[in-house]
């Protein structure tokens, strides 16, 4: 019986004995992993040995990406931007306010007329810094009916600026620096150019002759030496106060050779503030229903 146990013990001993060796190996591996310096060396060695090929590809990809990015940046720097066209400026209806055919560009310090929507009928560009108007400003805007440039710095207006605006009825150029009037459109009913520097030589003889719809004319506070010629029969209100008018004649408002002629439509003529004594020209008002406002001595 003892012999049998000894034999079995001998048979199983090789299977049991290696166990301590496994524990020792585990301890060694565990100890190796706990040293940060050695772990770093192991990681570097593993990456250099087994991942070298893949790392090279990754590095090459990164380098190519960087080169492309650098090239794009260089292209952006070296390629100049395209020249800005006038129509590329800020859209008018962001700069101004557009509402049902009306464009409001008031007090925004613009120094030129912005491109207007083609359907514009009313333009209010008051209190800005516009110095000049040209025909190009309104070339493609045929439906304009009212234009207001009150309180700008206007010194010059090309003759053809408004002449082709066949629908224009009201033109307001008050409080500017104008020395003369441009050619006016045929359907104009109101012209307001008060508080400028307009002299009589700045108004052509036929400026008002064909304006058969003109009802309101405001030229007060200018530098006129005489009443404009050929004032149309349609006029209802004429403001010429505070100019340099020194005299009037029998043909200024009436017709000297026609004692039956009466200007029925005129409701108001203002001439006060001029160096003229209206009492010296009684026959100049014989066709009027109301005497002009001014001094009578």
UniProtKB/TrEMBL annotation:
Superkingdom as given in the UniProt entry: Eukaryota
Record PROSITE patterns: LRR
Keyword annotations: Disulfide bond, Extracellular matrix, Glycoprotein, Growth factor, Leucine-rich repeat, Proteoglycan, Repeat, Secreted, Signal
Any one cellular-component term (Gene Ontology): extracellular matrix
Main subcellular location: secreted
Signal peptide (from-to): 1-18
SMART domains (alphabetical): LRR_TYP (SM00369)
Gene Ontology BP annotations: articular cartilage development; bone development
This protein's record includes keyword Signal: yes
Signal as UniProt keyword: yes
Compartmental location: Secreted, Extracellular space, Extracellular matrix
GO molecular function, one term: growth factor activity
Function: Induces bone formation in conjunction with TGF-beta-1 or TGF-beta-2.
Family per similarity comment: Belongs to the small leucine-rich proteoglycan (SLRP) family. SLRP class III subfamily.
PANTHER family listed in its UniProt record: EPIPHYCAN-RELATED, MIMECAN
Protein name: Mimecan
Organism per entry: Erinaceus europaeus
């Amino acid at each position: 019986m003892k012999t049998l146990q000894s034999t079995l013990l001998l048979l199983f001993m090789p299977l049991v004995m290696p166990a301590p060796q496994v524990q020792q190996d585990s301890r060694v591996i565990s100890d190796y992993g706990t040293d940060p310096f050695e772990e770093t060396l192991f990681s570097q060695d593993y990456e250099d040995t087994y991942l070298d090929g893949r790392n090279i590809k990754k590095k090459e990809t990164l380098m190519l990406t960087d080169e492309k990015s650098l090239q794009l940046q260089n292209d952006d720097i070296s390629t100049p931007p395209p020249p800005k066209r006038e129509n590329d400026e800020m859209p008018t209806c962001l700069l101004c306010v557009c509402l049902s055919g009306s464009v409001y560009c008031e007090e925004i310090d613009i120094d030129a007329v912005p491109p207007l929507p083609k359907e514009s009928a009313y333009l209010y560009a008051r209190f800005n810094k516009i110095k000049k108007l040209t025909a190009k400003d309104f070339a493609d805007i045929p439906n304009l009916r009212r234009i207001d440039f009150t309180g700008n710095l206007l010194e010059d207006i090309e003759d053809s600026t408004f002449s082709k605006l066949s629908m224009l009825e009201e033109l307001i150029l008050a409080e500017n620096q104008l020395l003369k009037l441009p050619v006016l459109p045929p359907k104009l009913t109101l012209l307001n150019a008060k508080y400028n520097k307009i002299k009589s030589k700045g108004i052509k003889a036929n400026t008002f002759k064909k304006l058969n719809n003109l009802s309101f004319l405001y030229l007060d506070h200018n530098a006129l030496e005489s009443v404009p010629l050929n004032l149309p029969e349609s006029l209802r209100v004429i403001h010429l106060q505070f100019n340099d008018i020194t005299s009037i004649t029998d043909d200024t408002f009436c017709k000297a050779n026609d004692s039956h002629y009466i200007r029925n439509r005129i409701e108001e003529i203002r001439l006060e503030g001029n160096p003229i004594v209206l009492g010296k020209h009684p026959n100049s008002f014989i066709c009027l229903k109301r005497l002009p406002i001014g001094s009578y001595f």
